Amino acid sequence: MNSAKVLVAGVGNRFRGDDGAGQAVISELRNWALPAAVELIELSGEGAALMEAWRGYETVILIDAVRSGAEVGTLHRLEAGSQCLPKNFVLFSSHAFGVASAIELARTLGELPAHVIVYGIEGQSFAPGQTLSAAVAAATSMVARRILGDLDVEPAATGRKRSPA
Amino acid sequence: MSANTTRTIKVGVLARVEGEGSLRLKIKDDRVLEAKLAIFEPPRFFEAFLRGRAYSEAPDITARICGICPVAYQMSACHAIEDAFGVQVVGPLRDLRRLLYCGEWIESHALHVYMLHAPDFLGYEDAIRMAQDHPEAVKRGLRLKKVGNAIMTLLGGREIHPINVRVGGFYKVPARRELGALIDDVKWALDAALETVRFAATLPFPDFERDYDFVALQHPSEYPLNEGQLGSSNGFGEGKSQISIGEYEQHFTEEHLAHSNALHSVINSRGAYFVGPMARYALNYDVLPPVAQQAASEAGLGRVCRNPFQSIVVRAVELVFACHEALRIMESYETPERPFIEVQPRASSGYGCTEAPRGILYHRYRFDDHGVILDAKIVPPTAQNQKTIERDLFELASRHLDLPKDELQWRCEQAIRNYDPCISCATHFLDLRLEKA
User: Fold this and answer.
1) Any CB–CB contact under 8 A between A43 and chain B?
2) Structure pTM?
3) Mean pLDDT of B165-174
4) What pLDDT digit, counting tens, does each position of B78-110 carry?
5) CATH number of the domain bearing residue A82
6) Burial B333-362 (b: 16+ CB within 10 A, else e)
7) Looking at the predicted complex, does its ipTM rise above 0.85?
8) Which residues of A touch B68 (CB under 8 A)?
9) What total number of domains does chain A contain?
């Protein structure tokens, strides 16, 4: 059973500009010594795969790029386990059945983990390419630190496994 | 509806299709003036950035074109490259390729049938609302999809963007017991696929048929995935019912139209044609396994289905085929001695065409004597169906001009989803505008 475990999922596509934000956060987290109960995963954002990935976890932390009209690099944090995602909170996805749908479908089917934290990073460009906008890149570091806080990992105490590139 | 008016119906974002784009219908008086499927996103530059890359990189680069059908891209690329270098992959390696492809079909078809298409017929806005009333059906769809995922993960190395496929075969092949571990899941999936056919057959379908020009691979003894000649229900002229893959560009042309970033494909001197499950089914019914034929017949399908709304039943029948074929391969599998066959690059051109879940995917490459790609051409299935989708919309709207705008719009959106369009491949994104000024 994974019930005590935490899944941290970076969602998106590294080849679609700022859509790579979620996966960039995961890359950053890989530089830290995390508790053994924490699982890091990168996903495309295809909804059914997401529902499968978090099955059995009590806590899931999702990081995805967002288009909500806010300033680029803006960080959104939502507790989706207890509340529906707001309508204007569009998690960027080119998939027909994406992240937001997966959360709501799992809620309907009673398959949503008890605690779901969604970090949305406001993106700017989703054109093909591997570069994050500067403001998005800055936000990914901030999200990584927030997640370390969520996981009760003290960056200063545990130290890095290695310096991030 | 008053006379002498021009109406333009617009719809914002078209839901439940892969990618991004739009459709616009222009109606004057009681006549549809135009039905245009527009794709906004910039065209993909994959063909351009393949130039100068090594042949061995093409399967992984092109797999990135689509997150839903990466296997199709890998398979068409491998076959084209092997064609160029004069290599044929046979035996267990060929079987494993078919098995990998079955995984993708199962995953893609289960997603479309249950999550994207069924809500249309049951009157739900999306699968989330459908799940409130039909939780078992939605769960069945998700579990079926998971079985497809499991096959892809085992053979492809991971769930999305498989990394284990290479020219000549695989980097690593599974042991017999690794496949064996999935057999019970696939047996369940076969039963679930049969249940899916029964489920799809009960849906209410609009009365809509057209005389399509079906185009699909044809193989003498197997329902096509990787291999075959290209067949057309209307033939290729001069009494030819089939052509080789290498003749594709002599018979099909891509046109660039102002309203769309994706190229429109036509079959020369005839125009629109139809690729995908209904085309495969019509041209390959005889080589479907009996279990799939029987399921089709019990669902009330004839040997040919011309109602695109019923494509959901045909897709379900193909799910039966894919599960049956996967099981057959898994049960008879013997681990090959080597995971791949060596290939020797040479200055040459090669052609590959395989059946993506949505229809034929054509690749052509030209190489120098070191195997460096000089140029590439990729024609995805959705680009090939674009013109047919527009024709369907034109016909459908013409027949239903009396419907209230909302219903007409809904009907048109459904007509697009009949094709499970993967705009991500054709380029990206769809948003539907039905204009009634």
Assistant:
1) yes
2) 0.88
3) 96
4) 999 999 999 999 999 999 999 999 999 999 999
5) 3.40.50.1450
6) beebeebbbebebeebebbbbbbbbbbbbb
7) no
8) 46, 95
9) 1
